[in-house]
Structures are given as structure tokens and as C-alpha cells.
Amino acid sequence: GFIKKACISDNIASVIDLYFSAPASYDVLSAWVGVTFASVQVYCDFSGYSDMAIACAALLGYQLRENFYFPFFARDITELWRRWHMTLSRFLRVYLYIPLGGNRRGFFRRYVNILITMLLGGLWHGAGWNFLIWGGLHGFYLIINHIWQILWSIFGKKNRKLTSFGVFSARVVTFIAVVIGWVVFRAETLTGALIFYEGMLGFNGFSLPVQLANKIVF
User: Fold this and answer.
1) What are the φ/ψ torsions at residue 152 (nearest 5 degrees)?
2) Catalytic amino acids?
3) Whole-prediction pTM value?
4) Which residues, other chains included, contact 12 with Cβ-Cβ below 8 Å and sequence gap of 6+?
């Protein structure tokens, strides 16, 4: 936990600040590198102090629940929320999603409940539009994932075992979806987030690192 928080997260935080303080300065490759490092920084920060809290409690004779379990290896967004900030996920499910009616009030109401729960979960991280949008984005991710699972079941493929390539692809797609969400979570303003998204989509161009470009002869 100390290594994740003090050695990794705190040291790369200043680098991430450079990316998000001037998002228009980075091309598509740099933007994706920056937001990927931002994902690592947020994970190491959250899970690092969670690990230290669990260890300190254990030294005093108390056993706390695990809070992170390799979330970036999740194969879909539902599994990610079972691995990411698990204490918060349980709190949102028990005290928000279930009291709202959970999945007991029909197809449409279930997804409204998911969206409301994730919007409030976003506000838990901070009172700002960035966090609200981030929570809403994950709400839509969960809704899409639930609908996908239903379609997968209709076509009789729900219990089919994924190949190694299928598992790898599912993890990559899930990670990319999470990374896209971290932009609005980490950006200083909504305008900055939009500019960063433009860079990720290639609006700021594409360039190779100088060391690599010098080795390529056309």
C-alpha cells in the first residue's frame, strides 16, 4: 500500500497534472498515454491508502474487508465494480439501489435505479459536474452491460466459455471504457475534458517520439 500510494501515485501525479493543465498541447498518442497513467495514478492512490488502512487495522486486531481486487483485469463493467472500491459498491447497492427498488420494479425502472445510484456515487467523490458526469457515464456503461448480457442469454451464449483471446479482448474493451471515464473525472474543467477527448480522437494530430521517428526512414 505504501509503495502504491507514496512511490507510484504521488510521484506520477505531477506528470499527470502537466497533461491535464494543457490538454490542447498533446496529440493522440500522448493523450492516451496521459490518461492511461492517470488511471494508474487514481488506482494506486485509492487502493494504496486502503491497503495501509487494512494493514494498520490488522496490527490493532481488527479485520477490514478488502477494497480493491485487481479491477483493471475485469472482463466487463459489472465485474469491475465488484472489484473496484468494493466497500463503496456495497454501500451504493445496499443503501441506494435496493431501497430505490433494485430490479424488482420492472425492466425500465431497474435501469433508472442504476443510473440514479451511479449519479449519486459520482457526487460521493466530489460536488462537481465532472464527478456527476463520471457517475452517469458509468451508469450508462452498466445499463449497456446488462442489456448485452440479456441479448447474450437470448442467443444462448451466456454460459459459453470465452477463449483466451475473448477474455483478453473483453478486458481491453473494459479498460478502454474505464480510461475514457477517467478523463472527465481527472480534468480540472469540463472544457478541459472536452479538449482532452479531442486529443484522444486525433484532432490534435499524431506524432511519433523523436527517438523512434529518427529510426524510421521513408
Assistant:
1) -60, -40
2) 125
3) 0.87
4) 37, 40, 41
